[in-house]
User: Fold this.
Amino acid sequence: MLLFALAATPAAAQIAVEDAWIRATPPGAKTAAGYLIISADSADRLLSVTSPAAQRVETHITVHEGDIARMREVKGYDIPANSTLELKPGGAHLMFVNIKAPLKEGMMVPATLKFQRVGEFKMAFEVRPLAGAEHHTGEHPGH
Ligand SMILES: [Cu+2]
Assistant:
């Protein structure tokens, strides 16, 4: 009876991930930005991310200094209990560094998220087109 009771105990903390995607890369690119939304029912911290598609994955934030947006590496992200952490274009993002092959639309890129509380969480990012809500090439008046 005791063993049965222990086995039936549900996991204490849960993490859910949605809308995980990576921007497709132009030829020769060494880095790619990844985005996702993480929900946690207990306070947790995303410590690090690894992926077989890149030499390393850094956790970045975007800091605005006047008109200039700069990326800065941070040591992971806190996720308060019953809340979501949203990594999105123009804000916090994952930076896949030294990618091993170009990322093309429709590919799935596996990754492992490491959390302080729930431990490792395996998931995959969908590669989406380069031209999206935010793109930096062409079409700017005055260029
Ligand atoms: Cu970055």
